[in-house]
Structure formats: structure tokens, C-alpha cells
Amino acid sequence: MDVSEAVVRRKSIRQFLPDPVEDDTLRSLLELAARAPSGGNVQPWRIYVLNGDSVTRFREFIADRPVEAGEYDIYPANLWEPYRTNRFNLGEQMYATLGIAREDKAGRLEQFAKNDDLFGAPAALFCFIDRGMGSPQWSDLGMFLQTFMLLAQEAGLDTCSQEYWSVKHRAVSEFVGAPDNEMLFCGMAIGKADPDAPINSLLSERMPFDQWARFV
User: Fold this and answer.
1) Which partner for 16 in 121, 152, 169, 177 could form a disulfide, CB atoms 3.0-4.6 Å apart?
2) Predicted pLDDT at 1
3) What is the C-alpha to C-alpha distance for residues 184 and 93, in angstroms, rounded to an integer?
4) At what angle do helices 53-62 and 169-176 cross, to 10 degrees?
């Protein structure tokens, strides 16, 4: 698989098969992903990996943990155009694959709650950063995570990055044993996509080139 194919094939998977993932595979992918760009070679990512039994224990641990105030805003307040429409359309398209109507709040909440189950994935990681780091180092996290997701595609694995975990950051930190100076950015479910799950047919749209780029 070349890079272009991995980019096209990567998408957020929200229903995984239970097929196990080897620890050695995850370690190899993470070590290679650490070659991602990092300003000044700071390498600010701190990764905690869950696999097999630890995923089972985590599901049991997180099940009754309440939603908390997030340590950062996942989206800006009063999101403006065209960003608001992009986000709205994705939500509508996702719930449409499941036959969940816009007014079916219970159905939408039930689907949203599947974040706690890691969408059935057999493995996961949580990405933290030292609280003293700034915005440039947060961008390093994005490059590291994208590199990992593309490498996972090459290895036959699928992923779903989950900023959802920011609203359960204390519980996650407690479970993985992260020190107080580390702040949770996101989690990521890892495994093989269930090919029969309707929600996995969703392919998010991208705006036309001329709406977000121009040659000067």
C-alpha cells in the first residue's frame, strides 16, 4: 500500500470486529509513528496503550464514570460557517446510516455512548501531553497520530480517534496512571472494521479545493 492509498482508505471506524491485535504490532507501529515531524524534536506525545485484558478492565472501569467538564473545548463556542455546516452535515450523514432520525434523541445518545465501549475495538491508545507545552506541541500530536493511523492502514488495521475522552479525562488518567502534569488529548480505538456495520459505510465529505486554498 502506498501513502496515497492509505490516506484515501483511512476513515473513522465506529464498529470494530473483536479480532485481537498483537502487542508487537502496536509497538512496531508506534515506534515508526514516532518518526513524525516534531518541532525542535521535542516529541511531546505520551502514549498509553490498552490491549486485550486491559481493554476489558477499562470498559468495566469506565462504565459508571460520569461525564466531566472537559479540560479543553473540542469545538469553538457558536461555531461559524462554513465549519458549522461541515460538522452538522457529518452528524446527519452518520445517524442516517443507522436510521436514527434527527428527533430521536434517545437513539442518538445511545450511539454516542458507544464511545465508552471504544466501538467494540480490541485495542486502544490514549494520547497525553505535558501541561507546560504550547500550541505548536499540540500540532505535533496531530502529526504523530495521523502518521500512526496511516501506518495502521498499511498493517491492515483501522482506527477512530476520539476527542470524546476529554469529558472523562480524570477517569482515563486514573486508569492508565498518568501523572498530574500530563493532560489527556484524545483516545483512539484500534482494530479491524466490521464490514457489515452500516455506520462504517460513512465517508465524510471534504470541501472543494478552491474553498480552502489558493495559489498566491
Assistant:
1) 121
2) 87
3) 29
4) 140
Distance CA 93, CA 153 (A): 23
What is the rounded CA–CA span in Å between residue 216 and residue 214? 6
The conformation of residue 65, written as its DSSP 8-state character, comes to: P
Confidence class for position 36, pLDDT limits 50, 70, 90? very high
Domains of the chain, start order = 3-72+116-202 (3.40.109.10)
CA-based nearest residue to 11, from 98, 141, 119, 107:
119
